[in-house]
Amino acid sequence: MKLLLLVLLVATTQPLPIRSRDSEDALYPFRRVYRNANDSNLRAYRNAGDKLKSSLEHLKMIARVTNGIYLQHALASGSIPADKLISELLHFGNVTPAQIAGIEMSKMQKSVEMLKALPGSLLNPNPDVADIELTLDTIQEILGAIDGLGDVGERPRAKEFDALMTNLSKTDIGIQVAADFEAGRDLWSGAHKIMKSATALHEAQTHFPYIISVANIIKTSLPRLQTTLPLWKYKEFKSAAEGLAPTMRLVDAINTTDENINNLARTTKQWTAYSEYLNGFLSQLNSMRSSQSQFQNVHDLLMARKSARSRLVEHVAGFSDGVSDIVSISVDLADPWMKSVVKSDELATALNGLKSLESKNA
Protein backbone atom coordinates (compact mmCIF):
# COMPACT_ATOMS: atom_id res chain seq x y z
CA MET A 1 0.00 0.00 0.00
CA LYS A 2 2.83 2.36 0.89
CA LEU A 3 4.51 1.73 -2.47
CA LEU A 4 1.23 2.29 -4.33
CA LEU A 5 0.63 5.68 -2.68
CA LEU A 6 4.22 6.73 -3.33
CA VAL A 7 4.11 5.84 -7.03
CA LEU A 8 0.76 7.59 -7.53
CA LEU A 9 2.05 10.71 -5.76
CA VAL A 10 5.15 10.95 -7.93
CA ALA A 11 3.11 10.21 -11.05
CA THR A 12 1.10 13.39 -10.52
CA THR A 13 4.26 15.49 -10.21
CA GLN A 14 5.78 16.02 -13.64
CA PRO A 15 9.34 17.38 -13.98
CA LEU A 16 9.67 21.01 -14.96
CA PRO A 17 10.89 21.52 -18.54
CA ILE A 18 14.15 23.30 -19.08
CA ARG A 19 12.28 25.93 -21.17
CA SER A 20 8.61 26.35 -21.89
CA ARG A 21 7.73 25.31 -25.40
CA ASP A 22 6.06 28.67 -25.94
CA SER A 23 8.76 30.79 -24.30
CA GLU A 24 10.90 33.22 -26.24
CA ASP A 25 14.02 31.06 -25.87
CA ALA A 26 12.41 27.68 -26.54
CA LEU A 27 14.17 27.39 -29.90
CA TYR A 28 17.36 29.22 -28.93
CA PRO A 29 19.69 26.55 -30.43
CA PHE A 30 18.10 27.21 -33.83
CA ARG A 31 17.70 30.98 -33.45
CA ARG A 32 21.43 31.65 -33.17
CA VAL A 33 21.73 30.71 -36.86
CA TYR A 34 19.84 33.92 -37.69
CA ARG A 35 21.86 36.29 -35.51
CA ASN A 36 23.56 37.89 -38.54
CA ALA A 37 20.76 37.33 -41.05
CA ASN A 38 18.98 40.15 -42.88
CA ASP A 39 15.46 41.36 -42.03
CA SER A 40 13.73 39.24 -44.64
CA ASN A 41 15.23 36.07 -43.19
CA LEU A 42 14.19 37.13 -39.71
CA ARG A 43 10.61 37.68 -40.86
CA ALA A 44 10.63 34.28 -42.56
CA TYR A 45 11.88 32.71 -39.34
CA ARG A 46 9.11 34.32 -37.28
CA ASN A 47 6.41 33.30 -39.74
CA ALA A 48 7.57 29.66 -39.69
CA GLY A 49 6.84 29.19 -35.97
CA ASP A 50 3.34 27.70 -36.16
CA LYS A 51 4.27 25.29 -38.92
CA LEU A 52 7.34 24.09 -37.07
CA LYS A 53 5.37 23.66 -33.85
CA SER A 54 2.76 21.61 -35.68
CA SER A 55 5.45 19.36 -37.18
CA LEU A 56 6.99 18.82 -33.76
CA GLU A 57 3.64 17.84 -32.29
CA HIS A 58 3.11 15.33 -35.10
CA LEU A 59 6.55 13.83 -34.42
CA LYS A 60 5.68 13.51 -30.74
CA MET A 61 2.44 11.76 -31.62
CA ILE A 62 4.31 9.25 -33.76
CA ALA A 63 6.88 8.70 -31.00
CA ARG A 64 4.18 8.10 -28.38
CA VAL A 65 2.18 5.72 -30.54
CA THR A 66 5.27 3.80 -31.68
CA ASN A 67 6.52 3.48 -28.11
CA GLY A 68 3.02 2.40 -27.04
CA ILE A 69 3.03 -0.44 -29.58
CA TYR A 70 6.43 -1.60 -28.32
CA LEU A 71 5.31 -1.32 -24.70
CA GLN A 72 2.12 -3.29 -25.31
CA HIS A 73 4.10 -6.14 -26.87
CA ALA A 74 6.85 -6.09 -24.21
CA LEU A 75 4.36 -6.14 -21.35
CA ALA A 76 2.52 -9.04 -22.91
CA SER A 77 5.75 -11.02 -23.26
CA GLY A 78 7.05 -10.00 -19.83
CA SER A 79 10.37 -8.75 -21.24
CA ILE A 80 10.37 -5.48 -19.24
CA PRO A 81 11.10 -5.58 -15.48
CA ALA A 82 8.26 -3.81 -13.70
CA ASP A 83 10.56 -1.78 -11.43
CA LYS A 84 12.61 -0.54 -14.37
CA LEU A 85 9.54 0.47 -16.35
CA ILE A 86 8.05 2.40 -13.44
CA SER A 87 11.38 4.16 -12.78
CA GLU A 88 11.62 5.27 -16.42
CA LEU A 89 8.01 6.42 -16.64
CA LEU A 90 8.14 8.40 -13.39
CA HIS A 91 11.66 9.74 -14.01
CA PHE A 92 13.27 7.97 -11.06
CA GLY A 93 16.55 7.37 -12.89
CA ASN A 94 18.24 4.17 -11.66
CA VAL A 95 16.28 4.19 -8.39
CA THR A 96 13.55 1.56 -8.20
CA PRO A 97 10.19 1.98 -6.43
CA ALA A 98 11.25 -0.70 -3.93
CA GLN A 99 14.33 1.37 -3.02
CA ILE A 100 12.18 4.47 -2.59
CA ALA A 101 9.78 2.57 -0.37
CA GLY A 102 12.76 1.42 1.72
CA ILE A 103 13.88 4.96 2.56
CA GLU A 104 13.49 5.53 6.31
CA MET A 105 13.26 9.27 6.88
CA SER A 106 13.60 9.01 10.67
CA LYS A 107 16.80 7.00 10.29
CA MET A 108 18.22 9.47 7.78
CA GLN A 109 17.31 12.43 9.99
CA LYS A 110 19.11 10.80 12.90
CA SER A 111 22.22 10.33 10.74
CA VAL A 112 22.12 14.00 9.70
CA GLU A 113 21.92 15.09 13.33
CA MET A 114 24.83 12.81 14.26
CA LEU A 115 26.89 14.20 11.38
CA LYS A 116 26.26 17.77 12.54
CA ALA A 117 27.31 16.86 16.08
CA LEU A 118 30.39 14.91 14.96
CA PRO A 119 32.93 17.82 15.04
CA GLY A 120 31.95 18.63 18.62
CA SER A 121 32.24 15.01 19.71
CA LEU A 122 35.85 14.91 18.46
CA LEU A 123 36.84 17.57 21.02
CA ASN A 124 37.57 15.25 23.93
CA PRO A 125 38.49 17.03 27.19
CA ASN A 126 40.29 13.96 28.57
CA PRO A 127 44.02 14.86 28.92
CA ASP A 128 44.98 11.22 28.30
CA VAL A 129 43.49 11.45 24.81
CA ALA A 130 45.46 14.63 24.10
CA ASP A 131 48.69 12.97 25.30
CA ILE A 132 48.20 9.97 23.02
CA GLU A 133 47.49 12.29 20.06
CA LEU A 134 50.81 14.04 20.80
CA THR A 135 52.58 10.68 20.86
CA LEU A 136 51.07 9.68 17.51
CA ASP A 137 52.12 13.01 15.98
CA THR A 138 55.68 12.44 17.21
CA ILE A 139 55.78 8.92 15.78
CA GLN A 140 54.49 10.24 12.44
CA GLU A 141 57.23 12.89 12.41
CA ILE A 142 59.91 10.28 13.08
CA LEU A 143 58.57 7.94 10.40
CA GLY A 144 58.53 10.83 7.94
CA ALA A 145 62.19 11.57 8.67
CA ILE A 146 63.31 8.00 7.96
CA ASP A 147 60.89 7.29 5.10
CA GLY A 148 62.75 5.58 2.25
CA LEU A 149 65.90 4.83 4.26
CA GLY A 150 65.19 1.12 4.55
CA ASP A 151 66.55 -0.70 7.58
CA VAL A 152 67.56 2.04 10.01
CA GLY A 153 69.29 -0.55 12.18
CA GLU A 154 72.21 0.01 9.83
CA ARG A 155 73.44 3.33 8.57
CA PRO A 156 72.17 3.62 4.98
CA ARG A 157 74.92 2.68 2.45
CA ALA A 158 77.29 2.44 5.38
CA LYS A 159 79.79 0.09 3.70
CA GLU A 160 80.14 2.23 0.58
CA PHE A 161 80.53 5.46 2.54
CA ASP A 162 83.02 3.94 5.02
CA ALA A 163 85.08 2.64 2.10
CA LEU A 164 85.12 6.14 0.60
CA MET A 165 86.24 7.70 3.88
CA THR A 166 88.98 5.06 4.31
CA ASN A 167 90.25 5.71 0.81
CA LEU A 168 90.33 9.47 1.37
CA SER A 169 92.19 9.06 4.65
CA LYS A 170 95.00 7.20 2.84
CA THR A 171 95.23 9.64 -0.04
CA ASP A 172 97.57 12.62 0.16
CA ILE A 173 95.96 15.59 -1.46
CA GLY A 174 98.13 18.60 -2.18
CA ILE A 175 96.61 21.93 -3.10
CA GLN A 176 99.40 24.12 -4.46
CA VAL A 177 97.33 27.27 -4.20
CA ALA A 178 96.90 26.69 -0.47
CA ALA A 179 100.62 26.00 -0.11
CA ASP A 180 101.46 29.25 -1.90
CA PHE A 181 99.11 31.15 0.38
CA GLU A 182 100.76 29.58 3.41
CA ALA A 183 104.23 30.55 2.16
CA GLY A 184 103.23 34.11 1.40
CA ARG A 185 101.35 34.66 4.65
CA ASP A 186 104.49 35.46 6.67
CA LEU A 187 105.84 37.75 3.92
CA TRP A 188 102.55 39.66 3.82
CA SER A 189 102.29 40.00 7.59
CA GLY A 190 105.91 41.14 8.03
CA ALA A 191 105.81 43.63 5.16
CA HIS A 192 102.45 44.99 6.26
CA LYS A 193 103.69 45.50 9.82
CA ILE A 194 106.85 47.35 8.75
CA MET A 195 105.02 49.55 6.24
CA LYS A 196 102.53 50.63 8.90
CA SER A 197 105.32 51.68 11.27
CA ALA A 198 107.73 53.13 8.66
CA THR A 199 108.53 56.83 9.07
CA ALA A 200 110.46 57.23 5.84
CA LEU A 201 109.49 56.31 2.27
CA HIS A 202 112.61 54.29 1.57
CA GLU A 203 111.87 52.04 4.56
CA ALA A 204 108.53 51.06 3.05
CA GLN A 205 109.70 50.76 -0.55
CA THR A 206 111.96 47.82 0.21
CA HIS A 207 108.90 45.74 1.21
CA PHE A 208 106.68 46.55 -1.79
CA PRO A 209 107.89 43.49 -3.76
CA TYR A 210 106.63 41.17 -1.00
CA ILE A 211 103.18 42.76 -1.14
CA ILE A 212 103.12 42.48 -4.94
CA SER A 213 104.14 38.81 -4.77
CA VAL A 214 101.25 37.90 -2.44
CA ALA A 215 98.82 40.02 -4.50
CA ASN A 216 99.74 38.01 -7.60
CA ILE A 217 99.02 34.79 -5.70
CA ILE A 218 95.56 36.11 -4.83
CA LYS A 219 94.96 37.26 -8.40
CA THR A 220 95.72 33.87 -9.93
CA SER A 221 94.20 31.70 -7.19
CA LEU A 222 90.68 31.34 -8.65
CA PRO A 223 91.72 30.14 -12.15
CA ARG A 224 94.22 27.75 -10.57
CA LEU A 225 91.61 26.35 -8.19
CA GLN A 226 89.17 25.81 -11.09
CA THR A 227 91.75 23.67 -12.89
CA THR A 228 92.59 21.78 -9.69
CA LEU A 229 89.03 20.84 -8.58
CA PRO A 230 87.63 18.28 -8.06
CA LEU A 231 90.31 16.85 -5.81
CA TRP A 232 88.99 13.29 -6.32
CA LYS A 233 86.38 11.49 -8.37
CA TYR A 234 83.43 9.66 -6.80
CA LYS A 235 82.43 6.22 -7.94
CA GLU A 236 79.75 5.22 -5.43
CA PHE A 237 78.41 8.77 -4.86
CA LYS A 238 78.02 11.79 -7.08
CA SER A 239 79.25 13.98 -4.25
CA ALA A 240 80.17 13.86 -0.60
CA ALA A 241 76.84 15.54 0.17
CA GLU A 242 75.00 12.62 -1.45
CA GLY A 243 76.94 10.16 0.65
CA LEU A 244 76.17 12.05 3.84
CA ALA A 245 72.47 12.73 3.09
CA PRO A 246 71.02 9.38 4.34
CA THR A 247 73.09 9.53 7.50
CA MET A 248 72.04 13.12 8.17
CA ARG A 249 68.39 12.17 7.74
CA LEU A 250 68.88 9.38 10.25
CA VAL A 251 70.55 11.85 12.61
CA ASP A 252 67.54 14.18 12.28
CA ALA A 253 65.21 11.30 13.17
CA ILE A 254 67.36 10.43 16.19
CA ASN A 255 67.33 14.06 17.31
CA THR A 256 63.55 14.20 16.98
CA THR A 257 63.24 11.01 19.01
CA ASP A 258 65.62 12.33 21.66
CA GLU A 259 63.81 15.67 21.93
CA ASN A 260 60.41 14.01 22.32
CA ILE A 261 61.41 10.91 24.26
CA ASN A 262 59.01 11.81 27.08
CA ASN A 263 56.11 11.97 24.62
CA LEU A 264 56.75 8.39 23.53
CA ALA A 265 56.32 6.85 26.98
CA ARG A 266 52.61 6.38 27.75
CA THR A 267 50.82 4.25 30.30
CA THR A 268 48.26 1.51 29.71
CA LYS A 269 45.63 3.76 31.29
CA GLN A 270 46.27 6.46 28.68
CA TRP A 271 46.09 4.03 25.77
CA THR A 272 42.86 2.56 27.17
CA ALA A 273 41.28 6.02 27.35
CA TYR A 274 42.26 6.68 23.74
CA SER A 275 40.91 3.29 22.63
CA GLU A 276 37.54 4.07 24.24
CA TYR A 277 37.52 7.46 22.54
CA LEU A 278 38.15 5.87 19.12
CA ASN A 279 35.54 3.16 19.68
CA GLY A 280 32.91 5.80 20.42
CA PHE A 281 33.83 7.70 17.27
CA LEU A 282 33.78 4.55 15.12
CA SER A 283 30.41 3.59 16.60
CA GLN A 284 28.97 6.89 15.39
CA LEU A 285 30.40 6.35 11.92
CA ASN A 286 28.95 2.84 11.74
CA SER A 287 25.53 4.17 12.72
CA MET A 288 25.66 6.72 9.90
CA ARG A 289 27.02 4.17 7.43
CA SER A 290 23.82 2.13 7.71
CA SER A 291 21.97 5.03 6.04
CA GLN A 292 24.54 5.61 3.29
CA SER A 293 22.68 3.64 0.62
CA GLN A 294 19.46 5.51 1.40
CA PHE A 295 21.21 8.87 1.08
CA GLN A 296 22.62 7.70 -2.25
CA ASN A 297 19.16 6.72 -3.47
CA VAL A 298 17.74 10.11 -2.51
CA HIS A 299 20.63 11.85 -4.27
CA ASP A 300 20.19 9.78 -7.44
CA LEU A 301 16.43 10.35 -7.40
CA LEU A 302 16.79 14.13 -7.05
CA MET A 303 19.39 14.29 -9.83
CA ALA A 304 17.14 12.24 -12.11
CA ARG A 305 14.16 14.51 -11.44
CA LYS A 306 16.29 17.62 -11.94
CA SER A 307 17.75 16.68 -15.34
CA ALA A 308 14.53 15.58 -17.04
CA ARG A 309 15.78 16.30 -20.56
CA SER A 310 19.07 14.46 -20.34
CA ARG A 311 17.97 11.03 -19.11
CA LEU A 312 18.96 7.81 -20.81
CA VAL A 313 15.99 5.44 -21.07
CA GLU A 314 15.69 1.98 -22.53
CA HIS A 315 11.97 1.30 -22.84
CA VAL A 316 10.14 4.67 -22.90
CA ALA A 317 12.17 6.84 -25.29
CA GLY A 318 8.96 8.09 -26.93
CA PHE A 319 7.46 9.28 -23.64
CA SER A 320 9.42 12.46 -22.97
CA ASP A 321 6.88 13.60 -20.36
CA GLY A 322 6.72 10.26 -18.63
CA VAL A 323 3.53 8.54 -17.58
CA SER A 324 1.27 11.35 -18.80
CA ASP A 325 2.29 10.52 -22.38
CA ILE A 326 0.67 7.09 -22.04
CA VAL A 327 -2.67 8.74 -21.33
CA SER A 328 -2.13 10.92 -24.42
CA ILE A 329 -1.93 7.94 -26.78
CA SER A 330 -5.71 7.63 -27.05
CA VAL A 331 -5.94 11.36 -27.76
CA ASP A 332 -3.21 11.05 -30.41
CA LEU A 333 -5.06 8.25 -32.19
CA ALA A 334 -8.23 10.37 -32.25
CA ASP A 335 -6.37 13.27 -33.86
CA PRO A 336 -7.47 13.90 -37.49
CA TRP A 337 -3.90 14.02 -38.75
CA MET A 338 -3.01 10.73 -37.06
CA LYS A 339 -6.21 9.14 -38.40
CA SER A 340 -5.18 10.17 -41.89
CA VAL A 341 -1.90 8.33 -41.33
CA VAL A 342 -3.18 5.19 -39.58
CA LYS A 343 -6.51 4.98 -41.46
CA SER A 344 -7.88 2.44 -38.99
CA ASP A 345 -9.42 2.27 -35.53
CA GLU A 346 -7.87 -1.12 -34.80
CA LEU A 347 -4.68 0.42 -33.41
CA ALA A 348 -6.63 2.51 -30.92
CA THR A 349 -8.45 -0.61 -29.74
CA ALA A 350 -5.19 -2.57 -29.46
CA LEU A 351 -3.55 0.11 -27.35
CA ASN A 352 -6.58 0.75 -25.17
CA GLY A 353 -5.08 -1.41 -22.42
CA LEU A 354 -2.27 1.09 -21.85
CA LYS A 355 -4.72 3.57 -20.32
CA SER A 356 -4.67 1.69 -17.03
CA LEU A 357 -0.91 1.03 -17.07
CA GLU A 358 -0.26 3.56 -14.33
CA SER A 359 -2.53 1.88 -11.79
CA LYS A 360 -1.51 -1.63 -12.84
CA ASN A 361 2.21 -0.96 -12.35
CA ALA A 362 1.54 0.77 -9.04
UniProtKB/TrEMBL annotation:
Per the UniProt entry, the signal peptide is 1-15
Sorted alphabetically, which Pfam families does this protein's record hold? WSN
Q: Which residues form the Domain of unknown function WSN domain?
A: 50-121
The record ties this protein, via InterPro entries, to: WSN (IPR003125)
Q: Does the keyword Signal apply?
A: yes
Entry's PANTHER family? Answer: DOMAIN OF UNKNOWN FUNCTION WSN DOMAIN-CONTAINING PROTEIN-RELATED (PTHR32525:SF0), PROTEIN-TYROSINE-PHOSPHATASE (PTHR32525)
Can you name this protein? Answer: Domain of unknown function WSN domain-containing protein
